[in-house]
Amino acid sequence: MSSGAGSTGFARSVADFALSVESSDVPMRDTEASERSILDTVGVMLAGCASPQGRMVDTFVHSYGGEGPFTVVGSSRTVDAPMAALANGTFAHCDDFDDMGGYGHPSAPIVGALLPAAELLQRETGVPVTGSQLTLAHVVGFEFGAAFCSRTAYNQYERCFHSTPVFGALAAALAVSRLLRLSREQTVTALSLAASGASGLGRSSGSMVKPLHAGLASRNALVSALAARSGATADPDIFEAHGGFLSAYFGHRAVDIDGVAAALGAPFRVADTATIKRFPCCGSNHSAISGMLALLERNPGLDVSTIDEVVVHGMMETSPVTRFPQPSTGCSAKFSIEYVLGLLLTKGSLELSDFRDEAVDRPDVVAAAALVRPEVSSRWDVGRAAKHKGNAVSVRLRDGRVLTEHVLRTELIGGPKNPVTLPWLQEKFHGNAAMTLPEVAATRAGQAWSALRDAPDAARLVALLRAAPDTDLLPDVQEVSG
Amino acid sequence: MRTVDGATQVLARFAASVPTPLAPAERGRLLDSLMDSTMAMLVGGSEPASVAMRDVAMAGAGSVASGPLAAGPVDRTWLAVIAALASGRGGATSFGAEAAVLWGPLLQAGRLEDPDGIERILHSFRVGALAASGLHRASGYDEVERGFVSESVFGVLGAALGVVALLQHDAPADQRESSALHAIAIAASHAGGLIANRGTTAGLLSAANAARDGMSAALLAILGLVGTTDMLEGRQGYGEAFFGLPARRLENLPTCLEEELLASDRLRLRHMRGHISHQRVLLALGSLLDGPAAGHRVERVVVSGIPPNSEGSRFAVATDRSQADLSLADAVTRALRQRDAGTDAPTASVELRYVPRWDPRLEDAEYDAEELRVDLVGHEPLVVDVMTFPRSASRADLFAKWYAAAASCDPTVAEHITAGLSVWEGMSIEPDTADLAPLREFLAAALRTLAA
């Protein structure tokens, strides 16, 4: 059945899926992929809270949030759960260094909501949430969000609403509902509430507001689940109804939501979808970045002074990284193919510090960036540009030679076909965590979150993410890992 | 190369430059709206939706014992606006949001202890209401066609600009404009809310979220969070998302803002509980039942000329109070039952007649219905033109509404209501700060009650 033709029960089907899945139903490769994503997400939260926008949001939640015992990552102070979700979800996305795939940035909204949800459940029941339960909740939410967005071919560039917070709110609401063990009807209500609270505009890309989208989705999800649990009402057919989610976000296009429901968990898609980022910038840059790095590695003498032009092929007209040819802020630099390739040509690497406001106007980088030309494909030439194809990079040298490299987006290191190793991921975690935590605390947090599967108490792991925790009071890693 | 200021800049500049002195009539009407919304917050606190959301706030605070007092100003705003909407009696605005969506954040963010605290709150409401209603008119937005609720789409911006005006009242104009610019960008990314959820708790949350998020957007902008400066007109921005690609530039926005004169013109205060489109219909019915129909048995009531997409006729049969507020049939039936209470008269039937979308009267956003006819046993039918009844309640009407509400409230709340009505009745519309001390005390007490 398609939307608008009398189909009902999508939210109920989704709820049934969430309630029926157990850890043993999830293939080990998907569980491992989920664990990697969670580890990566808490790591980038620890870096994100140190960013300028992260610090502002931290000030906001502590100044205007309510009293509460819930962890704000990177802070020594605690707040109420919704504000903690807002902060943590935002931190995860502050540097655009969080995972991608499925519906944009899948784990930031989910993990941002799950951290306070785990603490809340443990406080309410006295029974700890295990690492496995946290992972299962992530899998459930990720599965739904990814299936819904990808199978319906939602196009955020045409519809304007950023897919991360829109589908992320739904995914996170389902994840929290599963973690809190809401009933079927409560889960349906939570989804309906989350759908009504979804928001986030694509125009915010390249500004400090984009990270906030993930935090809004996290808070929305947590509040939706709590409200459903407290007896709030909402339309159970919110997706199909007149004036509902499908008509608002998809317009009059027919959408096969029954197909989405049938595809949930058949098979699970975390392992085949989630991509851990190597570079702290928009994912639409990564294919070209990977290509350029390969060229630099194969041609050690490649230097700005020898280059006539760098062409990035197959750029879609809607590509967000063509929006800021001459970025003036760190946030907009993340969405500039010219800047990131200029950076590589100048220093050969990309780091978080390269995306702070004070770094973007270095004369050598600006000069190198001016050599970069994105080749935008005509809208009518559908065979040339597509997101999954990535972008070939050609370097035309002054001596006439042309060097070309093409790394498909599907072949990116960190993606499903080329997953990063655990040591690499742990090193990324440590580099991020050390921006906020002392060395010992960063190490302990990394070890503990790397052993999430065996952790008997997720709330204790969350506590390791607080600022300057007293190392004498820290439990041994073995204690938190079980 | 475009050199004319974009819509975002235009709106921000407008919000930063709304003149301060209020005309006495405008001031009086805004005071009425402020009191009306505050009463709604107090009365609505005991509604099931309100109670449920206070439980959420308590859970979010991590301890049942800590209570909503543990909530910060942002979430206290959220709870207060939920209460106001749950009461079903607060005033509405022309841009689709309840007035409480703007009053809620301003009351939480305002400094009532300051002698000019009330004046600043009134001015700030005016800024937010004029900006939101100007934008609404410039956009020609139809929420039923687009699917996102107006209280979120426009309310969140109105709340954001109102709070910026309040908190930066003494700041230089260029600073106010800059904060307004970024508050617009932040707030716009919070707009959402689905009309399918009207008549449920989720529907109330759309408005409460708009108030909370507008306040948050203002606070974040003042803290320095920077958004895109062309959020309204830019590609993939607010205008394109909600109004469509061709309309995104909002080229008539300057004209529409210039035409915004009185914020009070943008208010419709309710005479009684129920959707704003029910008010005139019920007044018309009351005028007949209490007048020429008195003593006669009513056989049928026919309301004709109803817009086919009227939210007030959303539910033919209401299953709870939230739905009843969106059911004209239910509202008319209840009025008839109340009139016939204690008698054995069978309940009269109610028939609603809708007009097609081609009807030119639908161009008027405040058109509610054409006529109401009452068929009586043994008597000629009585007919009255619905649109001849007042679009908004007078101060006297508001007093009657809240005195009636107080009679069925919890004693503590009733005491607050009665105290507030006493202050309200004694208020002068002239800007006399000494006169406002009792008002400041009442509002502060109301906020403490709401937070308890």
Low-confidence stretches of chain B: none
Report helical residue fraction of chain A.
40-55%
* Termini Cα gap of chain B: 56 Å
Q: Report the helical percentage of chain B.
A: 40-55%
Percentage beta strand of chain A? 5-15%
Write down the overall mean pLDDT of chain B.
93
Uncertain stretches of chain A: 1-7
Please identify the structural class of chain A as seen in this structure.
Answer: mainly alpha
Characterise this structure.
The complex is a heterodimer of chains A (482) and B (452). Chain A contains 20 helices and six strands. Chain A is mainly alpha-helical and 482 residues long. The longest helix of chain A has 21 residues. Chain A is globular. Chain B is 52% helix and 6% strand. Chain B has 19 helices and six strands. In chain B, helix 2 packs antiparallel against helix 18, helix 5 crosses helix 11 and helix 17 packs antiparallel against helix 18. The radius of gyration of chain B is 22 Å and the shape is globular. The mean pLDDT of chain B is 93. At the A-B interface, helix 3, helix 4, helix 5, helix 7 and helix 9 of A face helix 3, helix 4, helix 10, helix 11 and helix 12 of B.
Chain-wise SSE layout:
The complex is a heterodimer of chains A (482) and B (452).
Chain A: H1 10-20, H2 28-48, H3 52-64, E1 70-71, E2 78-79, H4 81-93, H5 107-125, H6 131-151, H7 156-159, H8 163-179, H9 184-197, H10 209-229, H11 245-250, H12 257-263, H13 286-298, E3 307-315, H14 330-333, H15 337-347, H16 363-369, E4 372-376, E5 393-397, E6 402-405, H17 422-433, H18 439-450, H19 458-463, H20 477-481
Parallel strand pairs in A: 3-4
Antiparallel strand pairs in A: 1-2, 3-5, 5-6
Chain B: H1 7-17, H2 24-44, H3 48-61, H4 73-87, E1 92-93, H5 100-109, H6 117-139, H7 143-146, H8 150-153, H9 155-167, H10 173-188, H11 201-223, H12 238-243, H13 253-258, E2 267-268, H14 279-289, E3 298-306, H15 321-324, H16 328-339, E4 349-354, E5 371-376, E6 382-385, H17 395-406, H18 411-425, H19 437-451
Helix pairs in contact in B: 1-6, 1-10, 2-4, 2-17, 2-18, 3-4, 4-5, 4-11, 5-6, 5-9, 5-11, 6-9, 9-10, 9-11, 10-11, 14-16, 17-18, 18-19
